[in-house]
Amino acid sequence: MSTHPQANAAPEPIPQFDLSVQYATIGAEIRTAIERVLSSQQFVLGREGAALEGEIALLCGVAHGAGVASGTDALILALRACGVEAGDEVLLPTSTFVATGSAVSALGAKPVFADIRPETYNLDPSELERRVTSRTRAIIAVHLYGLAADMDPIAAFAKSRKLPLIEDCAQAIGALYKGSRVGSFGDAACLSFYPTKNLGAYGDAGMVVCNSPEIAARVRILRNHGQTAKYRSSEPGWNSRLDELQAAILRVKLRHLAGWQHARRSNAAEYTRLLQQIPGIMTPLEPQGFEHVYHQYTIRSEQRDALQQHLAARKIASAVYYPHPLHLQPLYAPLGHTLGDFPHAERAAQEVLSLPMYAELRKDQIARVVDAIAAFVKC
Ligand SMILES: Cc1ncc(COP(=O)(O)O)c(C=O)c1O
After folding, report:
1. How are strands ordered across the β-sheet holding 110-114?
2. Is the pLDDT of residue 1 over 70?
3. For ligand 1, which residues put their CB under 6 angstroms from it?
4. Residue 206 alpha carbon, nearest atom of ligand 1
5. Given a cut of 50, is residue 86 above it in pLDDT?
6. Is the pLDDT of residue 239 over 90?
7. Do 313 and 201 form a contact (C-beta atoms < 8 A)?
8. Domains of the chain by range and CATH?
9. For 257, how many CA atoms within 13 A lie in the half-sphere containing its CB?
């Protein structure tokens, strides 16, 4: 029998993300911010929201921000503000969270899917020419997992066809592409502040950022029942306003974001340093000129499902983002796609696995995840 008190202890579970560690460090600041809102008794479209809009726009390197109720609403309202209507087609990558497609569908428009580059999981720009039609009305580029899509060729294509370009930055706030932040390349860009995002609220929240005063003004009208003046609506809108409590919480967290992004990047570098020796495991690529913010640290393995079970048996969480590309979702069965239509996206869906990733993840936890992966590969 071991004399070491810890020798037989069950291993500490390693979660996919752990918001409680973050709250332990910023809880006092958050409670002060909440108290400030409660004292003001102003809960919707107030000073906190307006201040956050300016701060997020500044971070993204654009002129305007319009806070909305979620990242999904940001997409719906941005598409609508860019002129997308029922019957139009919108080009987007098939490897993304369903919200990117369902925002298009919510307007009665048709998502037209495109394949990805297998090494970055982002839209393959050469697909755009193949998929564009006379009905195409916009393009959505998604910056999946925290890595920017290859925006130069995408923006050049959009410009050549005079198509509005919308960035889905839900997973990538702060990521850099050739020295500029995501959110600054499109006609409009959409952010999600879902709690587990790199900048997460304590509930749902989102924002549209853009340089165009017209698009910003349109989103502000659409998020508030289409009202151009009090009780005067000239078109149908939504109630999709960012509330003051979430805005105040996000403003506190924004002050910490650079440090958290740095910690995520350092954790990713440690994973990659340790994992790159292991055969059969592909680590995430950060191409020259890109700065990944590692919303997810996503590896690939041909034995993905067995590897995930092996990790789970050792109390290590992991996640598959996403098991079904959009063209194979039951939602889009009416579009008539079949297996084989987008081979790179389909293969990624079989092989990707996101490992635990958050700023406070410790190096000893990373080592344990990597040891478990190495043991799996050896068996
Ligand atoms: C790529 C992508 N787009 C859109 C969304 C939708 O954001 P929300 O959950 O805030 O509506 C998400 C959220 O997970 C996302 O990951």
Report:
1. 64-68, 206-210, 188-192, 165-168, 136-142, 89-93, 110-114
2. no
3. 70-72, 96-97, 99-100, 142, 168, 170-171, 192, 194, 204, 206
4. 10
5. yes
6. yes
7. no
8. 21-250 (3.40.640.10), 256-378 (3.90.1150.10)
9. 24
